[in-house]
Structure prediction request, 97 residues.
Amino acid sequence: MSYESPIFLRRTPIELKAEDLDFDKIGPFVEYGMQMGKEIDKLTFQAIERVGITVDKDELIKALQYDRDQYDKGFRDGVKSERERINNLINPEEEDD
Prediction:
């Protein structure tokens, strides 16, 4: 692989690297996160019971999952927004007059 000058490419190495970012390829972390989520649900339920609050375990787990889903959606939206922002910095669109 030969080195190509960023001047020739009209992009800095940072700009070129930004194109390689792929937040969707997180493979093993997803499975680990799911396992952690189940353990956190269990511990949360136990902590709530310990302080004397009665709660339906299934409803609590649904609520915790909904909260995690909302967080994940916000994260994905943020990643999409940043990708678009970076792309616009790298390839600014020309304004029509």
